[in-house]
Specification:
The chain contains three helices and 13 strands; from the N terminus they run αααβββββββββββββ. With 198 residues, the chain is mostly beta strands. It has one domain: Jelly Rolls (Sandwich), CATH 2.60.120.
Length: 198
């Protein structure tokens, strides 16, 4: 994806990326192509992000890296072997996902027309290290899954604006419920919480 007329800064570290994202989100408008290019320009280096990579053997974890002055959330997700998300929306936010390690599969679905029929899949994409994908609610819903039964994966997610709940959907019936967005850690420190089952 080319961003014409924009001088792309050098993004050598995760801290460089965070600093540039803070500049980008000083404005109220979001240049999706520019943010996408920034994320592509950062080449994953575990030295940068390992301190945020806290996992759980039973489910994927969300680890908050940066609250973006209330304009965005940057989080690192750790996916154990065979971990998967539910089918979900993004609460009218922009969602960027960059692979830091391993491989994930994004499965997209159409918005359901009712709550009595199966969800309709609209596409699948395999994401490898340093690749980026983007979704918002106008593009549909998605599920993210680690298809490997032996290898973990790590992804970096940016939500703008941040949100604290979303809708999750049953694949067989399209029924939806509201689900809180919780964090396993914030800024590298464990969050005390009751384990939820989403």
């Amino acid at each position: 994806m080319e961003v014409k007329g924009e001088n792309m800064p050098s993004i050598a570290t995760l801290d460089d990326l965070r600093a540039e994202l803070h500049k980008v989100f000083e404005s109220d408008s979001v240049n999706v192509e520019y943010v996408n290019e920034l994320l592509l320009n950062y080449k994953s280096n575990p030295i940068d992000w390992k301190k945020f990579a806290h996992g759980d053997r039973y489910k994927y974890t969300r680890n908050l890296v940066d609250e973006g002055n209330g304009k965005f959330n940057l989080m690192l997700l750790v996916w154990g072997p065979s971990h998967t998300s539910t089918i979900h929306d993004h609460a009218d936010a922009h969602c960027f996902m960059k692979m830091l390690d391993g491989t994930l599969q994004e499965v997209r679905f159409q918005w359901p027309s009712d709550e009595e029929s199966e969800m309709v899949e609209s596409g699948r994409t395999v994401l490898k290290k340093n690749e980026v994908c983007y979704i918002n609610d106008s593009l549909g819903l998605h599920r993210v899954e680690n298809a490997s039964h032996s290898e973990p994966a790590v992804s970096l997610h940016l939500y703008c604006p941040p949100f604290d709940n979303c809708q999750v959907f049953d694949e067989g019936t399209s029924k939806k419920i509201k689900c809180p967005v919780t964090f396993w850690t914030k800024f590298g420190k464990k969050v005390n919480q009751v384990r939820n089952k989403n």
